[in-house]
Fold each of these.
Amino acid sequence: MRSAATLPGTLLAAWLLVGCEAPDTVLAKHGCASCHTPATEGLGPSLRRISTHYASKEELVLFLEGKSAPRVSPEAFEAMKPLVEQTRSLTPEERMRIAEAILRHRAE
Ligand code: HEC
């Protein structure tokens, strides 16, 4: 049964294609990780600190669409502004994935 034997490979390929990426892969892919790390303040605020300012993915998506003002470090927003230009041009699904990846860093 050739089809049965190739099924796992097909499933794996589909899984990779639909974007079941490790949470931080999506941030690395868009160049966010160079300024945002999980728990340390770097060029940008840590993902944990960002997550304390947003109660839901939907709220965070509004920021990524350029529709809400910065809350975490408004005085440093100039450095983040070009990245919002970038995230607002992504697909809604990709923005949601980014918001999820950030909010996963909420301290328990
Ligand atoms: C060049 C460094 C840099 C890169 C690259 C970068 N950021 Fe930022 N980011 C910042 C700085 C600085 C701030 C603090 C200003 C602020 O709060 O908006 C920030 C703030 C944020 C905030 C908090 C917004 C708020 O309410 O204040 C989010 C969310 C965010 N970044 C997401 C991202 C995402 C997603 C990416 C990748 C697409 C990214 N950042 C890439 C520097 C960067």
Amino acid sequence: MNRLFAPILLALVLVVVGSNVGEAQQVVTADGKQFSTTEMRISYQDTVVFMNYDAVPHQVFSSSNGLRFNLKRLLPGSGGAVRFAKRGVAEVRCAIHRDMRMKIIVE
Ligand SMILES: [Cu+2]
């Protein structure tokens, strides 16, 4: 996707998601069919925004107990936010690209 445009999209996503006092947001990007990090520690109630910087769709999900989510199809240039309201470890995957894996540790 157009890399100049990506930060603008990200800014829009962050505005839409909003944020309450005491809750933080972190961003994970998908680029080159890889997540930008393999492991991330966040605090309970934090939000993670997943941004697709690739030219192909991704489908980011977690089946981990108590931390399940599914962002469905994230088209190129789009993003989705997940708020983690339980402590634990979310094994995050892409349903389309099996090699895309990361862990979110919710403390
Ligand atoms: Cu993918």
